[in-house]
Write a structure and sequence with these properties.
Its cofactor is pyridoxal 5'-phosphate. The chain is of the alpha/beta class. The chain has 6 helices and 8 strands; from the N terminus they run E-H-E-E-H-E-H-H-E-E-H-E-E-H. The radius of gyration is 23 Å and the shape is elongated. Strand 1, helix 1 and strand 2 form a beta-alpha-beta unit. The longest helix has 36 residues. A 4-stranded mixed sheet has the order 1-2-3-4. The chain has a 4-stranded antiparallel sheet with strand order 5-6-8-7. It folds into 2 domains: 128 residues, Aspartate Aminotransferase, domain 2 (3-Layer(aba) Sandwich), CATH 3.40.640; 113 residues, Aspartate Aminotransferase, domain 1.
């Protein structure tokens, strides 16, 4: 069973405290996918979203999505490592050596037993450099800044009665749309992306076509958010003028 913390469409969070006990009782492997949101748990104020993680058998998040690490870099924890090594372990004679595992201990050279590929890239080095450069405080501020900027954009959207917010803004993602049909919002997205000033990716929420504004860049500032909203707002104004005329003619 895969529980998600920070879903891709709208950054929603499964309730681990409700799902976890069921999985444990029924002996179902519970994996937690926190690919995007996992980086935010470096901040104490967001750790309540992790409540129930103790029920999980494995947990994954991607530092390359929000923790300033270049693609690709995923971090995975497993509660009982023998579950992995028991499934993937492969020991032909030509791979055996005198530093083999001792008892339940597996040395670093034998991490190929934890996965399907025999070899692996040294992704941990670039993660180590980021941790050393920014430190805990620097990474926390990076996350908190993006969350503040997402709420800034949310506030701008709420001030315009033509638009609506479609999901709670928890981290750095704002789901919004023009009040109206899916076709209207598809047309707005088309005009936004064709203008090539900013780029938005959509999703469907409760059968509604929704625009997603994600704070992603390391260098983003409040002025960029203001610019993005003014751009979206102006394109919406232009679209609504022509949209109404076209539909009246039809």
């Amino acid at each position: 069973f895969c529980a998600t913390l920070g879903t891709t469409p709208c950054c929603s969070f499964d309730k681990l405290l409700e799902l976890g006990p069921i999985c444990n009782k029924e002996n179902i492997w519970m994996h937690i996918d926190a690919a995007y949101a996992g980086s935010a748990f470096i901040c104490p104020e967001f750790r309540h979203l992790l409540n129930g993680v103790e029920f999980a058998d494995s947990f994954n998040f991607n530092p390359h999505k929000w923790l300033l690490v270049n693609f690709d870099c995923s971090a995975m924890w497993v509660k009982k490592r023998s579950d992995l090594t028991g499934a993937f372990k492969l020991e032909p004679l030509y791979l055996q050596h005198h530093h083999q595992e001792s008892g339940n201990f597996i040395i670093k050279q034998d991490y190929f037993h934890w996965q399907i590929p025999l070899g692996r890239r040294f992704r941990s080095l670039k993660l180590w450099f980021v941790l050393r450069m920014y430190g805990v405080t620097g990474l926390q501020e990076h996350i908190r800044k993006h969350v503040r900027l997402s709420h800034q954009f949310e506030h701008l959207v709420l001030q315009d009665e033509r638009f609506e917010i479609c999901a709670e803004v928890v981290l750095g993602l704002v789901c919004f749309r023009l009040k109206g049909s899916n076709e209207l919002n598809k047309a707005l997205l088309k005009s936004i992306n064709e203008a090539k000033k900013i780029h938005l990716v959509p999703c469907h929420l409760r059968e509604k076509f929704v625009l997603r504004f994600a704070i992603c860049s390391r260098t983003v500032e409040s002025a960029h958010v203001e610019f993005a909203w003014q751009h979206v707002s102006q394109l919406a104004t232009d679209l609504l003028k022509t949209w109404g005329q076209n539909h009246q003619q039809q």
